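User: Sequence in, structure out. Go.
Assistant: Echoing your sequence, followed by the structure tokens.
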Amino acid sequence: MEEHKLLIFHERELEKVLSKLNLTEKIEKGELKCSICGKIITKENFGGILGRNGNILVICDSIECIEKAGGE
């Protein structure tokens, strides 16, 4: 069985977490897409970070995507 980890943090910690994971510039340039639906991730629609097999995946704030990410 694959192991998945969903990183959860408070909204006010978003900048710090994105910076630590070197994702800030990618979000600002529109280079990140939701790993579930493919929508471009912005700071406004950022939903969470999913760790899967050593990879970092980003998901949008869509309820459907968050539920799929948690249940995968």
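User: And one key feature?
Assistant: Residues 13 and 57 are 18 Å apart (CA to CA).
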